[in-house]
Amino acid sequence: MIKMxxxxxxxxxxxxxxxxxLMMISLTLPVFAAPSQAVYRVNTTAKVxxxxxxxxxxxxxxxxxxxxxxxxxxxxxxxxxxxxxxxHPSLIxxxxxxxxxxxxxxxxxxxxxxxxxxxxxxxxxxxxTIVKNATGKTTKPFxxxxxxxSNTTVLNAVGDAGYTKTIMWTxxxxxxxxxxxxxxxxxxxxxxxxxxxxxxxxxxxxFTPEALPGMISKLKSLGYKFVTVSQLLTYQSSSPTGKTxxxxxxxxxxxxxxxxxxxxxxxxxxxxxxxxxLIRVGQVLTIPGTGGTTPPPxxxxxxxxxxxxxxxxxxxxxxxxxxxxxxxNKITxxxLIRVGQVLTIPARSQTTPPPxxxxxxxxxxxxxxxxxxQRYNTTALEIARANNIANLxLIRVGQVLTIPN
Length: 405
Fold this sequence. Notes:
The chain is α/β, with parallel strands linked by helices.
């Protein structure tokens, strides 16, 4: 009996010591925030659009832009660097005093994919302090990466620094290149979609102030309403299943579809993906309800290629495979189809694996990544990733690029 009592007391002492040890460990372990979510556009049917402006250094057009926005009763979101805020704090105060939203665009615009986690946090913290001292406002929770350079490491570091949303863009006006007002306006109007985020800059070398009035007028005529990024995020459509998925490095739409028991086509439709081959790390996907597959047709059909379509997107639409369409139409290069081309669509199969072929392109004089991307129905960011290009603005004549699917 005495032995049993002693044994019981010993067990209680050991349990108490283990509990104390676990508590001490939990108190000493570092606490990490959730990764920042990359936002390229908001999944909505509402005709809302967000104007965003990056102030990297000179901010030469800030007052002109503010005057145009005020005249049209539009509130926008400005992404500020610490250097720019130091150089013209009064202009930054004008932005805040007129009711516009602000976010963090780093201290001196480095490529975040090429610096350490500690350096990233230093860039963010320095800018936050400078902007807060100048305006009394925080830049959190919005961050825009310089050059749009982002990956899993960047999103983790940015999230840990308190920036829960990494705001990318749907349409890049490329105004820094000095394109005309008409070119910028047409690019935005011809590519506008509900929930879009438009990227512009405040620098002196742009024609942004000249483009804005016409851009605003044409978007209004299409029924669009202008909102800040934070307002835009409130329009995010909820998933029928109540589920969302944040894309991780190495994932494909096909692997995500398998994970949730849905089809690639259902995911593409639920998230309005024009090209199912193009998903990005940090992108938030709505997971639709399961619905199985559509029975295959008993006959072949014809499809006329439209602007922006790829063989993979067409294969998804008809529930067949890229390889079957290629074989049925004797196509030598699956990446090269033309608008107006009439394709024979064979009977459906169970799955649609993505095309595996890639092509090479040699950069010519006058080329930019954006023009090359448009030519091959992909994005500048995807080409940059496929070729390990750190600066989207720096490609050289004669450089051989791999064009991803």
